[in-house]
Specification:
The chain is an alpha/beta fold. It has 11 helices and 13 strands. The protein has 2 domains: 138 residues, Response regulator (Rossmann fold, 3-Layer(aba) Sandwich); 164 residues, Alpha-Beta Plaits. α3 links the parallel β4 and β5.
Length: 321
């Protein structure tokens, strides 16, 4: 586990070097502006990067056991870590070594012995680009109506959590919620009121999630999807049922042109929970398809209910309504 050198700043930098003197120097230079974590080898670098998702990695090339070139190959092959910029900090001066680093995906080089001013400027420039890309990405993955994540964002997060579950052999629970009879609601009250309901239902679902790591997004139309990482089936059922009950018990006050009107809504839900494996029977597509089939089982069996994908539902032929 990386040692935290300063926890007061927003952006994080992971310094990886086997020489304590270099770690102290880089920490002294950067700690006033960034949160600094440190590791002493390539193994610790990958482990900490997976856990903390730093904004930038300063990576030594010459290290025992696993060198910087080997480490960056692992980072860039990982779907979760591949976009973290890596700056090599090295005493190697051979142009071929530098070319190798760039070919492997390095963002920049800082040569030893390093100048504090150069370190500050290069880190500042890359952090600035990280923040710009983060802002652009945030706009591109947010559903403009509800303010929660959109389908693109959710797909990226689901892939990341699937890979995490595969590595750690922990369960991944996937939930889909659908507002019952929403088309009829829109036909009766109009799309402005329908949009208002979508916002309020998304807020209710978000408030029903128990952990910051739980992920909510608008799946499409009146559907919402949730990822519950490291959550067994029983935990997912509790979350889904609590959200269902909350929506059922809520009175929605509509502001119509000439009056106010109270109305009630319900939602249906489908759940699938698996421990990922390197096996076609445990694919991510099957996880989604199972939850989707469980949802439509709920909708074809009275609505306002939570259903779990199991062997019985898997054998049913259900037409989407």
């Amino acid at each position: 586990m990386a040692e935290l050198m300063d926890s007061s700043k927003k952006n994080t930098v992971l310094v990886v070097d086997d020489e304590p003197m270099n770690i102290r120097a880089l920490t002294h230079i950067l700690a006033p502006d960034y949160t600094i974590y440190v590791e002493k080898d390539g193994y610790g670098c990958v482990e900490t990067a997976r856990e903390l998702r730093p904004d930038l990695i300063l990576l030594d090339v010459i290290m025992p056991a696993r060198n910087g070139f080997e480490t960056i190959e692992i980072l860039k092959s990982d779907v979760v870590l591949k976009d973290i910029p890596v700056i090599f900090v090295t005493g190697l001066s051979n142009p071929q070594d530098e070319e190798t680093g760039f070919n492997l995906g390095a963002a920049d080089y800082i040569n030893k012995p390093f100048s504090p001013a150069v370190v500050k400027l290069r880190v500042k420039n890359h952090i600035h680009m990280v923040n710009q890309m983060r802002e652009i990405y945030s706009l591109s993955v947010t559903d403009t109506l509800t303010g929660i994540g959109n389908r693109r964002h959710f797909n990226n997060q689901l892939e990341a959590e699937w890979q995490r579950g595969l590595r750690q052999q922990k369960p991944v629970s996937f939930l889909i919620f659908d507002i019952d009879h929403f088309k009829a609601f829109n036909d009766k009250y109009g799309h402005i009121q329908g949009d208002w309901v979508l916002k309020n239902v998304s807020t209710a679902i978000r408030d029903g999630l128990l952990r910051p790591t739980d992920i909510l997004a608008r799946w499409g139309g009146e559907e919402f999807a949730v990822i519950l990482p490291d959550t067994p089936l029983e935990g997912a059922k509790i979350v889904a049922e609590n959200i269902r009950r909350k929506i059922e018990s809520t009175t929605f006050l509509l502001e119509l042109d000439d009056r106010q009107e109270e109305t009630k809504l319900t939602i249906s839900a489908g759940i699938n929970c698996v421990i990922p494996k390197n096996d076609n029977s445990y694919s991510l597509d099957r996880l989604i398809a199972g939850a989707d089939k469980a949802l439509y089982f709920s909708k074809h069996n009275g609505r306002n209910k939570v259903s779990v994908f199991d062997d019985a539902i898997s054998r049913l032929s259900i037409e989407n309504d």
